[in-house]
Amino acid sequence: MGSSKIIRTIAQKLFPFIVLFGFYLISHGHLSPGGGFQGGVVLGTAIILLALSHSIEQTEKKFKSRWLNMLEKLGILTLIFLGFLGIFLGYSFLSNFLPLGNPGQIASGGLMLLLNIAIGIKVAAGVSVIFYALVRYRGEI
Amino acid sequence: MVVHIPILIIISPLLAAFLVLLTRKYKIILSIASLIASIVFISIQSSRILYGDKITYHLGGWQGPLGINLVVDELSLFFSLIVLGLGLLIVVYSIPERHYGRTYYFLLLISLSSMIGVIYTADIFNMYVFYELLSLAMYLLIAYPKTGVTLRASFNYLIMGGVGLSFFLLGVGFLYAMTGTLDIFHIAEKMSVAFNSNTRMVLMSFVLIATGMGIKIAMFPLHGWLPDAHSMAPSPISALLSGVTVKIGIYVLIRVTYSIFSAETFFTISSHAILMVLGAGTLLFGASMALVQTDLKRLLAYSTINQLGIVLIGLGIGTELGLIGALFHVLNHAIMKSTLFFCAGIMIAEAGTREIKGLSGFNRQQPAITFAFVIASLGMIGIPPINGFASKLLICLAAIEAGYTVLVVIILVASAISAAYYFRVIQVLFSSPLEHSPIPTHGEGQVVHRGNFFRAWPIYILTAGCLLLGLIPALGISLVKPAVGLLLSHVVP
Question: Considering only alpha carbons, which residue of chain B is nearest residue A96?
Answer without folding.
Answer: B60
